[in-house]
Design brief:
Belongs to the SIMIBI class G3E GTPase family. ZNG1 subfamily. This protein is an alpha/beta fold. It has eleven helices and twelve strands. Bound molecules: guanosine-5'-triphosphate.
Amino acid sequence: MADTQSDKIPVTVLTGYLGAGKTTLLNRILSQPHGKKFAVIVNEFGEIGIDNDLVVGADEEVFEMNNGCICCTVRGDLIRVIDGLLRRKGDFDGIIIETTGLADPAPVAQTFFVDEEVQAKTRLDAVVTVADAKWLSDRLKDAPEAKNQVAFADVILLNKTDLVTPAELNEVEARIRGINPYAKLYRTQKSEIDIAKVLNQGAFDLDRILEIEPAFLEEDEHDHHHHDHEHGPDCGCGHDHDHEHHHGLHAVHDSEMQSVSFSTDKPLNPEKFFPWVQQLVATEGPNILRSKGILSFKDDPDRFVFQGVHMILDGDHQRPWKADETRASRIVFIGRKLDAEWLKNGFLSCEA
Ligand SMILES: Nc1nc2c(ncn2[C@@H]2O[C@H](COP(=O)(O)OP(=O)(O)OP(=O)(O)O)[C@@H](O)[C@H]2O)c(=O)[nH]1
């Protein structure tokens, strides 16, 4: 990794559908005796930030990135607020962004990858999603944002456990796992949780990808759902899309979120892998919410780690492979309408 992540100010993004318990969690974080100071950005119209009176206005600025994909949007207002915060460096130990219940976390996360100034001084630590145990199952059916929030999460609080039966709780947890098997999941009431389980997760740090995702190591290969070849107009970024940009014109609420992962013990050829993955996220990026991988390249003594949000990829050599370590390449995609067989064949075709 090029830069020292630990010098950067950690940013935690809190998401969750309307009324799930985000504000309750935020108040808990702020009132626990941790001796830390957080800057809080509340991304909701009319709502006042708890610390520093920060408010991000209602009309968000959205601009199109060079590659023309409308889902790679970053919030200009968010960048401005963070820039303002950074000018008063030393005032706080972390930034917490509470997003509106209807927001997709991807554009917020992308802000920390694409804006140079922001990227130089902050690091996205984790996306924390609060899920309402009573209503999540219903929202997964009718609200694409709710599904995106679960799919994107690094940490999930399955909250309001007091409002459901144990059987219902197991059912909703299984639904969450079907969408996102990688996130850490905690059952909570009134968002009660040790903040050490929420903050400083390092989920977006390349060198901690494995620690945060033990399942990544254990499972050789799985694909959870059926796969199809259709492409829908919904990239899940929460913005209204011009249908001309996409092939499909049908309703998208039936689209399935899924995760697929593959591994191979054969070393990869970087000259095959990079063009493949770059082309993949350029074309399938709207459907791919998160991608992560640990790679073993032929004749390369170092592990290569990468991750992505939609079509933005970030990766670097991490550390030398240890002598007793299996040199395997593993890759995971979380998204919708992923063609698992096609992805797997593409990945395996990168073998050296
Ligand atoms: N029964 C029950 N109620 C809860 C629990 N956690 C939070 N609540 C209540 O649920 C309501 C919504 O909680 P908030 O923390 O405001 O939720 P939010 O996600 O910030 O809501 P929005 O900002 O409107 O999206 C409040 O009245 C909370 O007191 C819980 O575990 N059980």
